[in-house]
Amino acid sequence: MSRALRGRRILITGAAKGIGLATVERFITEGARVVALDRDEVALAALRGRFAAGSLDTAEADVTEPEAVSAAVAAGAEALGGLDGLVNAAGIDLIASIETMTLADWNRIIAVNLTGPMLVTQAAYPHLRAAGGTIVNVSSGAGLSPLKHRTAYCASKAGLQMAGKALAMEAAEFGIRVNTICPGAVETELFRSSIDTAPDPQAAYETVRARYALQRIAAPEEIAAAILWLTSAESSYVTGTAIAVDGGRTFH
After folding, report:
1. Band of residue 52 on the pLDDT scale cut at 50, 70, 90
2. Rounded to whole angstroms, how far apart are CA atoms 17 and 107?
3. Do residues 189 and 18 lie in contact, with contact meaning Cβ atoms separated by under 8 Å?
4. What is the SS3 assignment for 108?
5. What percent of the chain is modeled with pLDDT above 90?
6. What is the dihedral of CA 158, 159, 162, 164, to 10 degrees?
7. Which of helix, strand or coil describes residue 109?
8. I need a labelling partner for 76 at 20 to 30 A (CA). Which of 15, 147, 183, 195 fits?
9. Which positions ≥6 away from 45 have C-beta within 8 Å?
10. What structural domains does the chain harbor?
């Protein structure tokens, strides 16, 4: 491995599963010291047992709860002696028509996918200013090209992209780079649950797969590799961009 993040101190949300977990694993392999933030304490405990002391700290918090976020980020920054990077990977999905979606559904999606990253970023920002760090937001290809029956999800992910671009403008003077990645379908628990609850799971899977020029679903590790690049010095002149890591869905 290149050890591209040797000595870097990174906070990752949504860290107990899926893209967040794959990012934790890759970053530690690349030499980073990581704070894994998630609301699932059981999963965090299992994660702590996998890595050597000093490479991983954990923090339990729901990203929609301001006080919990502030306390968790402060504790994480103290444990690492500061922060050099942030990855906002926490997120949820909702499949519902406009007629069946409730206001509570809408509010929850916006709270987790858009307000949550803002709360974490606000809490981490003073530490990132001191270090001239990086922020990577995990949006979705659904924020670039919409999907049927995902109005709230698409809106939240498109909003996250624009928030990242706007923040990049004000953060640049402090040497902070802010970028967004837009994954397509990824083999995660979230994706699998949406497939398995379909009337015909195999047909549903094939329908999704056919949307992609590469004709396959991504592995979480492929998304983590893109996040790694945007966090590393290899992307030192990249900020304010949203990169589709989607196997070609947005042009296919």
Report:
1. confident
2. 23
3. yes
4. helix
5. 91
6. -110
7. helix
8. 183
9. 58
10. 9-183+218-245 (3.40.50.720)
